[in-house]
Protein 1
Amino acid sequence: MLIYWFLLLFPFLMIITDHNKIYTFGKFNIFTSSNFAWVSFFFILVITIGLRHQIGPDWYNYENMLGVAREGNFIKSIKFSDPGYMLLNIIGAKWGGLYLVNTFAALIFSYGLIRFCNRQLNPWLAILVAVPYLVNVVAMSYTRQSASIGFIFLGLIALADKKYFKFILLILLASSFHKSAIILLPLVIVSETLNGSIFKTFIIFLFVIFIYIIQGEYFINTIKFYSEQNLNSIGDIVRLSMTLIPSIIFIIFFKNFNLDSYQGKLWMLYSLSGFGLVLLLIFSSASAWVDRLGLFWIPLQIFILSRLPNIFKPGVSKFIITIIIISSYLAVAFVWLFYGQNTKHFLPYKSLLLT
């Protein structure tokens, strides 16, 4: 259990010591204290997530996928699940096993997370918001989705920088680890419409439609499977609320976030699209599918809540908001660790390094 609290304690201590600074993960001097902290946390994430042993309810499902890859039939392996993830398994079947697969996925996730958090006004607060659920639960259990989310983080950075084709490429890479990530692709159409030519927008629109036609069968089969099996998630409303509440805050205090016109419209669109998940949850007979889709809206929590203290005047208000956010996510971690129904799959924490 201590490792989960340590992952929260690290950003908490950095918030206390470096709360007025903004860092850039990339061109840095590794010997400065701030960059040393970022690099240290990156490797802690990769090692903790990548070398975990029998952690999470999906562990044995991933072992079965590795078993398919070990049969040596390349085509069968690629078709068995998401191609990007199965390609990793084909490599892992020869060297390193599931630990190599998990470590590579952890590299993608951790790099994307840290790059994205470093784009926020309060980078360590962004990390703290991510740890209780995204890191401790999603990255520790849902390997395919976590790698996919790593690419999504990088894709959102590209979209914010108006690098539309890079965004498309990164979302396609994300969907190679979990096909559901393709649901975010329409963001590029609206974003390009806000900033680009009609012809360029039309070309992107046709490309997105083409991708959706290719992936259409997957979505139909997935919805059919979850509905027929009546698969529901415990706590889905709570997890969805963790994204919707920040979205509502963003919509209400939109002007206070002081984003430029393009950025404001982009994140407003992303926030509003999250409400579509509510409709899916209401009308779907299988909440598990909606719950998994909701993972791709977690970046909203990080973006909005890490910036929330800055929409108020410096001083007491900013301090109080920061304390409320920290306390809320510490509470989330506490409830999950002590009362979560699936926590037994995560405790005690086991690692290849400790076996």
Protein 2
Amino acid sequence: MGEHRLARVGAVLVALAGTGACGGAQPSQMDAQIANAPSDAEPRILLDVRQVSGGGNCMDPAHLDAEPPAIFEVTACRHTTLKGGRVLAVFTWRNRTGQEQAAAYGLANHVSPGPDAQGQPSRFPVAGGNRFAVPFDGSWVAWTILGQTVAVSPDTPDCGASCDSYGLAGPDSYPVDLCPDACGDGVCNYGEWCDSCSADCDCSSLYPLVDCVIPLPDGNKLVSFGYDNRAATGAALNIGPENRFLSGEPWRSQPVLFKAGAHHSVFQVTHGGDDVTWMLAGTAVTVSPDTPLCSQNCVSSCPRGSTCVADRCQGSCGDGLCVEGCDYCPDDCACAAGNVCVGGGCYNPPYCGHDGIGLECGVGETCGVRVDCGPCPDGQACNSMHFCEPICAVGASP
């Protein structure tokens, strides 16, 4: 088996399939794994990726994977929550159009009956997909989006494995609910924003706070921020015009979920030069000469990468140490050129290539990227792993 055709199966399944979770080692890392692989490696550890994808002989046309259609997919199902036994209508979307889609709440994007916005998004990124849920009272509920309407009724199938899973605790397994939350359950959950789920999230009385400042030995300042949510429920504002820093990176580790009440020293930002300003729910706060110094009453010295603020050791976005994640603090955790940030981690997006890792043919989409690698040469067809394989002659066995 040639070394150039060796790869770890787990990385291949993610990097080549072009669907599902975003992941995979960087090309340089994968090349090193291949180059250092022993020539007598056991097949259960290192496999020829073409054997993984179809056998490396010829492809029966009946088993070829058709190119994914460029569509916006919407499905619906019923789910009974593991905790509390609540019945939910679950809607799932996937954007396979190759372009970001947007639909304001209203005629083109509404849930019925009830208010137009009930937890669904209004923007749908390229190659993105997700789900949202609303309580189901046993009659029906429908979502209309971009010219399509899907509904949940008493006859709608159960969500099954898409919402019900299992975890492992030693030799034993336990059930895990993947769809526990719904817009309208009284809790402002992540992914439910004040504009998309006003039933649970209230941003009408949300204010940013600049609590205190710590001068640092290098001449920079550590600024500690908090917030005051005077509403009776939680609030949620995604990073954007209503929750951002006005200079530099808009996200500097500030939260997107805000519990009711006043909360101090929630996050810290290290900066130098111009004063830093946080805009939240229409109100901006900026550190000034009158900002008080932070108290520092930690019972022990703080480890490297954290500073004592009030009575806790806390990290700071902008201190040059990546402990926050690439989406949470790009100043410290920016991804390398060519990689994309997904869920706080840096990943390789799909790419076209004949290096044993890249896609050789067809359309692949993951990590928010969609690539079209074109057709295979005459006499070959694109298999489900996006490799070109010879087409079996009529009557021949694959």
Protein 3
Amino acid sequence: MSNPLRTYLVSSGLVSESDCAKAEHKADKEKITLQHALEALQLAPEEQLLDTIAKYYRVPKTNLGEMDVPRSIIDLIPKDLAQKHRVIPIDRAGNNIIVAMGDPRNLDAINAIRFSAGFFPKPVLSSELRLTEAIEKYYGKILDIDPVDQADPSQPRKQVKQERHDIAASARMTARSSSS
């Protein structure tokens, strides 16, 4: 049985049939997603891969490497839940929590967040590499992190805030259209 994402990636011209076969073999062997395998094998540029997968799933994408998520947002999802389901909360919009994840159709993760955090998760796509880095940054050394929102002075704060605002706005629009 053919994987529809694989078919989409090959038909988009992003990866060849043989590269996709290599990635699927790795994904099956290591019990990881096709996206994770493609990233690990570096068979396509990360940004193009994310663009294509985000278009396929019809979700926004984010680059966690360019974000500085406030501790108050990180604290909305417990460490064990974030690590188990490989998610990072990046913003909150009313009753919605915007979560970066490698697989935005992971209903187990979405339901676990809904019941644990009490918010309605709105997934955005992130690379698996950036998720790993963010989980280590925000949860791996949780005791060493000052609860004050610390910004890296080399990061352009306006751009990061604007990206979080754009993602939150997209989630609100999605929430409105699905409640209609």
Protein 4
Amino acid sequence: MRVLIAAAQRHAARAAALASHLSAAGHDPMVVLAAPRRTPAFRKVGRFLDDPVHERAVTAEIRAKDPDVVHVIGCGGGTSVHLTWIARALGVPCTLEVEAAEALCHRGDLVHASGAPCTVVDDPERCAACCATATPGRAGPGAFAAALARVTGRLGFALTPAPLALRNRCDAIAGALVDAHAIVVADDAARALLLAVAPAARVQVLPAPATAALVELWRTLR
């Protein structure tokens, strides 16, 4: 089976491990990693959701190699949300391996500003308030930037993610999930979170590496 694995740099180790397991099982994997790029400003939510260079590379590889399936590792957090749509548009079955925190939280950890685990993933006002809070060790503004953002926000200039941008983010992630023929998560907790934005019938729990289970899933899509 020819498998195109598309992943951002942060998932390079997972992509390499999956490719190695597939090769050992007699399959023909190809890996297309996103090129390293500068991390966008935290307030520019949309810049974390696309990667035109990677999208073009994946499109070219699909056209050149005609894979049996495309497996995308990651969604949001630097991995383009358009990769599942590209695969579907080119007529290739696509599976999406998702980390719930990366997909559902702009800060990437599903921890509320209060320090409690976050289970509300579709409330942009709540997310915007969290993203405007300075929390050491987390993605987001520092203490000075957070204080300045409170002032500039009243003047109509946002230094932290606006609710509308986070609503658009949620919709973009949902679109990527809908375009995938199947969605793979590591555990039941991740599945429960994703059901807020993903079709339940497509979300499957397959703890990594689960290579044999992935191959069986791909065979049902061909």
